Every structure is written in structure tokens, then in C-alpha cells.
Amino acid sequence: MRRGDTNTHRILLAPEVIEQLPAVKAVLEDAALKRLFRYCAGHARLPICHIENVHNGSRDSLTERDPQKNLHVDTFQPTMKFWLYLEDVTDENGPFVFVPGSNRPHRERLKWEYQMSLRAREHADRYTARGSFRVSQEEAERLGVSGPQPFRVKANTLLIANTFGVHARGNAEPGSSRLALWA
């Protein structure tokens, strides 16, 4: 998938694929991890998993910016995504960015959500018009307890996020990539 200046390659971890990857199978069948996913997602269905490799930044200056690198919310209700990073994540290869506290439905968040819903359909940003509202830096500061925080982590770090909260794929150096299990 190409979005703006970023190519994302995902391989669906269907049962027949998982059978060929014993290390991945062991991770995804770990009972404690399954309980954690169910708790974070708020339901018993396990997430659909992929191997994800994000290739950052076309060197073509005419290419649009990756819309995933703009602060946004995925939906109007709590959702869970996870990344098990298979390599170190640095500023160079685009850390996950999250606005702490923005996942809580406090008065300011609900007011913002309502106001966005009234004007989203005619919004110039097509992602906002489809319901994945884009968030300005100023709005992000109001919706959370602090501004956006990047998650620079070591390989084998599990990151679970409620993507109802304000988040983004961090900016990255052109030509860099990062590899993860993603769901």
C-alpha cells in the first residue's frame, strides 16, 4: 500500500502462514498475550495479525506526505492496535506517536468529537471526511494531558495502543524502514 511518501508492505498471518513460522506462532499463541489483547480490545476476538514493513519517504519531492504521519484518531470508539517491533524504533525510522490522555472521553474530547462530526462530511481532508478525523497540534494539546509523545523503543518491544486516542506514525528519514508484527 502506498500512502503519500510511504510504502507499507503487510503479509496477512493467515493460519497456513502462521504454521510455517513457528516463532511467530509461539508468540501469537501465548496465553498471557492473548489475555492482554482481549483485555485491551474489550472483547474476546483476537486481532487480525500481519507482518508489517514500513518503508519511509520517497525521495521524490513531488510526492504527498503520508497521511498516517498527521495526528489523527481512527474511529469514534475505543479500538486496539498493537505492534511487536522486530527492530529498534528510532526517530530515523518513525516512532509511533501518541497524545497521552486523548483516549479518555472527557468533556473537551466529546465537545471536539461532536464539532468535528458536524463538519466532517465537507472537510477538505478526505480521511476526516470518512471519519478518521485529523487533529491539529493545537487540538492535540487540548485533547490530552500533554502534547504528542514519540515511542522510541528497542527491538522486541510490544506496544498496544487505543487508537481512539490521538496518534500518528512518526516522521522518518527517507529510505528508512521498520519491521513489526502488527494487528
Write structural notes for this entry.
The protein is α+β, with helices and mostly antiparallel strands. It has a single domain, classed as Jelly Rolls (Sandwich). The protein contains six helices and nine strands; from the N terminus they run ββαααβββαααββββ. It has helices at 15-18, 22-28, 31-41, 107-119, 126-129, 137-143; strands at 2-3, 6-12, 50-55, 80-85, 96-98, 149-151, 158-162, 167-169, 177-182. The longest helix has 13 residues, at 107-119.
Secondary structure layout:
Elements: E1 2-3, E2 6-12, H1 15-18, H2 22-28, H3 31-41, E3 50-55, E4 80-85, E5 96-98, H4 107-119, H5 126-129, H6 137-143, E6 149-151, E7 158-162, E8 167-169, E9 177-182
Antiparallel strand pairs: 1-2, 2-3, 3-9, 4-7, 4-9, 5-6, 5-8
